[in-house]
Amino acid sequence: MGLRLKFNLVLLVVFVLGLGVTAYISWTLLQKNAREEVVRNADLMMEAALAIRAYTVDQVRPQLDLQLMRVFLPQSVPAYAATETLSQIKKKYADYSYKEATLNPTNPRNRATDWEADLVREFKDKSALTEMIGERDTPTGRSLYIARPIRITNPACLPCHTTPEMAPATMVKYYGPANGFGWKLNDIIGAQVVSVPMTLPIRNAQRAFLAFMGSLTVVFALVFVVLNVMLSRMIVRPISLMSRAADQVSTGDFDVAELSEKGKDEIAVLGRAFNRMRRSLQKALQMIDG
């Protein structure tokens, strides 16, 4: 096995191992960053919903108290305001969604689906749990969700949701007496759920990974060629010349041109040593013959 082949095999093994380790680390980091980006988007959407709810309670509803005595306005309900506002985002970004999923909702559109009901039940079973982050498959691809429990902490909510008789007549007329009642203080009755698609960030991470690994492979190929050229010119070729010269001298053929002694590297030092040896050997044989 020649020197060049050994060198190339070692270089190839080092590259494959380095490429494998680099691929694992870069893929892990890119996937982590992509997920963190999705979580930030979902968290921002959740905070927007909370801000809308607070604005509705603090500034909108007080302005409608007199009107609410005559007619029920769903726009004055914080959950309705947040859902309606964020549904405008869904018109442009169809995979983004916000829902106040409730097991026994006043508004039928807030009724929890099977997977949302599982979240609500988990919040009910683990009362200390304040947030859940997870992933699920949807018809349009992988989606990440953030869920937070909806707990009745304000006694002012109970008159509307204890019994139909206690609730405002205008609300009962609007939604009917069948749903949204029987709530109790500190009960967890639902969950705020924000869903954000993961497809685009993951695809961007995959593209970045492929671009990085492709660039790394091209760089290795260039380094491989440059190292082989340098190896050939600086090591393999001088050693090959020295090997042929040594072979000729060993058979008594001294008609060999002296090796180049230019430079101060190890090959040049070896060349000078070989030339001295050849001259010394030639003189010794001449003395013996004389």
How is this structure best described in words?
This protein has 290 residues and is α+β, with helices and mostly antiparallel strands. Helices cover 61% and strands 12% of the residues. The two termini are 43 Å apart. The mean pLDDT is 85.
The CATH architecture of the largest domain comes to: 2-Layer Sandwich
Total helices: the number is: 8
One letter per element, helices H and strands E, the order comes to HHHEHEEHHEHH
Distance between the termini: 43 Å
CATH topology of the largest domain: Beta-Lactamase
- The total beta strand count reads 4
Structural descriptors:
290 residues, Beta-Lactamase, Helicase, Ruva Protein, domain 3, 2 domains, 4-stranded antiparallel beta sheet, 4 strands, 61% helix
